[in-house]
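Narrative summary of target 7.
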Amino acid sequence: MSTDAMTLNKNGHKPDPMKIMLEEFRRFFHLNEMPFSLLPNTNYYVDLPSHQQCFSMLMFAVASGEGIIKIIGEVGTGKTLLCRRLLNGLNDDEYYSAYLPSPNLNPVELKRALAKELKVPDLGWLADDELMEAINKRLLKFALNNKRVVLVIDEAQSLPDESIEAIRLLTNLETESEKLMQVVLFAQPELDESLNKYHLRQLKQRITFSQRLEQLDLNHIRQYIQHRLAIAGYNGKPIFNEGAIRLLHECSKGVPRLISIICSKSLLIAFSKGENTVTKSMVKRAVLDTESIDYRPKRFLGLI
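Modeled conformation, tokenized:
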């Protein structure tokens, strides 16, 4: 029998070496799945103070039905995950959500994207100057069916100024007793710079609720790591020792995405060494291998 034939699995196919390695990795750390994936999986949401405050504010503001809501956070602080949690938390019987993940659109493109989300009929036949009326009719139909429409825009810092103004005009759509659509903006701090422009002051005045996502402190990083490991199936003693966690805090500056990247690489280093504890030196190696981290203390020189 050839070597190739001997390596066939039960289905008659050669096993995927990458899948085998991932399975060995999970078994080594007693995990059911990868704990530090960068996908915005709401199962891994960690209800830390800053995120908890933002989410509580979001739910209250949406329930109030007035004004524009704004969530600001630096790159990697968990805006998209919070956005997904909001969308998942809206009761389908009461709310209809429209979601625009990539809003680098001119005003007409923005209105067409919104109309598509709202399932405006015969959209392909509508001229550009008919979009606002069609959107208004669709929103009125939702209102008659006692459904409140929430437009959620992620990465809103990418909106051109003209499109920001278009959003203001869309929030003008209302009945005598209520707004027909509420807008939630998730954005990096650059959005605030745009909103400080004089010609956008009208929209800025309509932002009635605003919150900022903060980076994690040392204690919150401990919680973040332990929570994600627990959700992934781990229930043993802490994998990351205190020195590793402190260096994680120092190098990541408390940004969840960077914490996840470093943790993932650190676990892989520990796995390659056959060690079930992540140490400071492993985190150092992971940091030096991460291009998005430009923090290089002098003591890193010659450390490994």
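The longest strand covers residues 181-187.
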